[in-house]
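We close this part of the discussion by returning to an individual protein. Part of our work consisted of pairing the sequence of a single chain with a tokenised description of its backbone. What the numbers capture is local backbone geometry rather than side-chain detail. The amino acid sequence and the backbone structure tokens for this protein are reproduced below.
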Amino acid sequence: MKELDLLKKDWQKNTNSFEQVSEIEIYKMIHKKSSSIVKWIFIISILEVLLWTSLNVCFSSDDYLKKMNHEEIILYLDIFNYFSYGVMLVFIYFFYKNYVTISATVSTKQLMKDILKTRKTVQYYVWYNLGMIVLSSIIAFYITFAYNPEMNVLKNQITTNGKAMAITIGFLILTTLVFFGAFWLFYRVVYGILLRRLYANYKELKKIDL
């Protein structure tokens, strides 16, 4: 925001007749920055979907389930994955729509509304993905524990030993929290930086609108 600060200082040094021109210049600069931020949100969301797709292809669970003679589970996992990708594609569409809308906005008030709308959409997207990560972890643990023959020894220990059950549950919860924390940190850094910059633009627009 260095360019914006310099422009505002120059604005304050000039006479009142230059005030309206300065407001227009500040608006154009904020508009351009906001459009660029939303474009990057759109691009990053696409890259994220491509990353998840690559990971699913490289680490497919189909062979693992076939080896355990439980191919019927593959269909349910495919439905789960299709649903997850479907929702993510809907969010990507909203990001693209927000980008197009902000790029075409000519009103200060409307740009402020569009910025808040974009921030809310990104927040919903992040919390959806974090929720899916937790749910996916629970499903993966359940399939491994319920259908993997190598888990029979552990299941026998759990049914006869309360301490073993507590340790197993604690391990599963800790692993889930580690995954959740890692992805939360990723989203906090990547999307958090963009959202903070977008909100800074909103606050500058609010000063102009007063």
